[in-house]
Amino acid sequence: MDFRMDKSSWAMLIFMIAAFMFLILEGAGGGMPMAGYLQAIGFSVAAMIALVAIMCIPVVIYCFVVKMIPDIDYSIRAAFAVTVIGIISNFIF
């Protein structure tokens, strides 16, 4: 795999962390102590890393079938798409 990232991938990662933090803090309600915000940051980063890692599996399989070199940007774009679909479904339902 190629682990160099585009600038758009960094923006997608930052958006995913911010979206996960928003959803965690929205579910927790108001009046959280500082430790709650630190935990929200930690869980957001962990969720983003896990989502990108999980999305590496179909990307590697697809790239193997199509005979192209896997790139971390593909996994980040797929994770971003899953995040956007999750956000839309969260606000719809």
* Shape assignment: elongated
Estimate the strand proportion.
under 5%
Number of strands: 0
What structural class do the secondary elements suggest?
mainly alpha
Q: Which regions contain 5 or more consecutive residues with pLDDT less than 50? A: none
Question: How widely separated are the two ends?
Answer: 37 Å
Helix content: over 70%
Order of helices and strands: HHH
Total number of helical segments? 3
Please state the average pLDDT score: 91
* Rounded radius of gyration (Å): 15 Å
The largest pleated sheet is described as:
none
Oligomer: single chain
Structure notes:
With 93 residues, the protein is mainly α. 82% of the residues lie in helices and 0% in strands. It has three helices and no strands. It has helices spanning 7-28, 34-66, 72-92. Helix 1 (7-28) packs across helix 2 (34-66), helix 1 runs parallel beside helix 3 and helix 2 crosses helix 3 (72-92). The longest helix has 33 residues, at 34-66. The chain is elongated and about 50 Å long. The mean pLDDT is 91.
Features:
single chain, 3 helices, 93 residues, elongated, mainly alpha
Q: Short description, anyone?
A:
The protein is mainly α and 93 residues long.
SSE blueprint:
Elements: H1 7-28, H2 34-66, H3 72-92
Helix pairs in contact: 1-2, 1-3, 2-3
